[in-house]
Automatic annotation (TrEMBL):
Belongs to the aldehyde dehydrogenase family. Residues 1-429 form the Aldehyde dehydrogenase domain. The gene is Aldh5a1. It comes from Pardalotus punctatus. SUPFAM superfamilies: ALDH-like. This is Succinate-semialdehyde dehydrogenase. Keywords: Disulfide bond, Mitochondrion, NAD, Oxidoreductase, Phosphoprotein, Transit peptide. It catalyses: succinate semialdehyde + NAD(+) + H2O = succinate + NADH + 2 H(+). It comes from the Eukaryota.
Length: 434
């Protein structure tokens, strides 16, 4: 933290064009080293190499985007009612930002925050997840090569046992001005309490419970393709993965049948370095146990396993992509975020019923629905209580678009033209006696 604080003033005073050039060079180095960086992700996270390669390019794109945004931090000149005054609004870096990131996207969750922070003129202390520290350190090596000064990008890896203590230091140190966290809602609430003591700026991207609604008017084949992409990417371990499928009764049976066939045909469990693999291992034993618990609870209440349902013979952390039907809203899998390869399907009758079920959660990160009725599309898109909506689309993350949630899914937005505002203070300057 002290290193970041000491590096802050000189970095913040650099012309925006210079900060932009260093970020741009960092982006270029990521692209040049994309294969090695992807292999690090697969080795420490388990996701298939093709997905890891996609993450590196997505990750690098945030450095490219914010390199460009660094030169567009505009203030204002405000007309006043007094003849002898002039009013300016400046935007200045908040200071040292503590960046706490998860294991499921060990590179992209860093650059999405750090790109904005450095573009704004802030310095950062990154605490990567204890499961995936190597990606953060690799990014640090490339930052050095890009000419980003010592102290501007700092990494503090730590063990699982030390995570709470390190998190508390980052959230309570008076030299830290801003906390940006991606992770569980429960942990986010703890960090918010710590940050309150010194009234730090906070942005958080917390847990989701994404609904995926398929209406009778939908193109079922497209809905199935979107469902597969949305649910089983990274073996179901993304914060915007679908957690609940709601399918209208008119097309319910057709959707379930086609979804099961596609799961069995297109998903292949294996070592992430095997080119055929689409489903790697879950991150640890605890993650597998949660999937098992949700399936056991659902089946005990009358759900049916359509496909999958158990651990894979390849190893203890590998789990079969699973589809459940006859699911109700009383089951754990529709009340909690599973964070694994489990797709529970609820049958519904009316649009109002689907929206009510979708909005019953205390979180609201992403939501998806498939419909070909224009009026219904407008209604449902506006009524879903989430920060991001995919309409006839299962993959919605993009560097140009604001990423974040409502309710207990977090505070603030990342990426897009809005993302840099999280690292800027607004200063009003009044010139009198003119």
């Amino acid at each position: 933290v002290r290193a970041a604080h000491e590096a802050g003033a000189p970095w913040g005073r650099l012309p925006a064009k210079e900060r932009s050039a260093r970020l741009r060079r960092w982006y270029e180095l990521m692209v040049e080293n994309k294969e090695e960086l992807a292999r690090i992700i697969t080795a420490e996270n388990g996701k298939p190499l093709k997905e890891a390669q996609g993450e590196i390019m997505y990750s690098a794109s945030f450095l490219e985007w914010f390199a460009e945004e660094a030169r567009r931090i505009y203030g204002d000149v405000i007309p006043t009612s007094a003849k002898d005054r002039r009013v300016l609004v400046l935007k200045q870096p908040v200071g040292v930002a503590a960046i706490i990131t998860p294991w499921n996207f060990p590179s992209a969750m860093i650059t999405r925050k750090v790109g904005a922070a450095l573009a704004a003129g802030c310095t950062v202390v990154v605490k990567p997840a204890e499961d995936t520290p190597l990606s953060a350190l690799a990014l640090g090596e490339l930052a050095n090569q890009a000419g980003i000064p010592a102290g501007v990008y700092n990494v503090v890896p730590c063990s699982r046992q030390q995570t709470a203590a390190v998190g508390e230091v980052l959230c309570t140190d008076p030299l830290v001005s801003k906390i940006s966290f991606t992770g569980s809602t429960a942990t986010g609430k703890i960090l918010l309490k710590h940050a309150a003591g010194t009234v730090k700026r906070v942005s958080m991207e917390l847990g989701g419970h994404a609904p995926f609604i398929v209406f009778d008017s939908a193109n079922v084949d497209r809905a199935v393709a979107g469902a597969l992409a949305s649910k089983y990417r990274n073996s179901g371990q993304t914060c915007v993965c679908t957690n609940r499928f709601l399918v209208q009764k008119g097309i319910h049976d057709e959707f379930v049948e086609k979804f099961a066939k596609v799961i069995e045909k297109e998903l292949h469990i294996g070592n992430g370095f095997d080119a055929k693999t689409t489903q790697g291992p879950l991150i640890n034993e605890k993650a597998v146990e949660k999937v098992e618990k949700h399936i056991k609870d659902a089946v005990s209440q009358g759900a049916s396993i359509v496909t999958g349902g158990k651990r894979h013979s390849l190893g203890k952390n590998f789990f079969e992509p699973t589809l459940l039907s006859n699911v109700t809203t009383k089951m754990l899998c529709t009340q909690e975020e599973t964070f694994g390869p489990l797709a529970p399907v609820i049958k519904f009758e009316t649009e109002a019923e689907a929206v009510a079920i979708a909005n019953a959660a205390n979180v609201g990160l992403a939501g998806y629905f498939y419909s070909q009725d224009p009026a219904q599309i407008w209604r449902v898109a506006e009524q879903l209580e989430v920060g991001m909506v995919g309409v006839n689309e299962g993959l919605i993350s993009s560097v140009e678009c604001p990423f974040g949630g409502v309710k207990e899914s977090g505070l603030g937005r990342e990426g897009s033209k809005y993302g840099i505002d999280e690292y800027l203070e607004i200063k009003y300057v009044c010139f009198g006696g003119l």
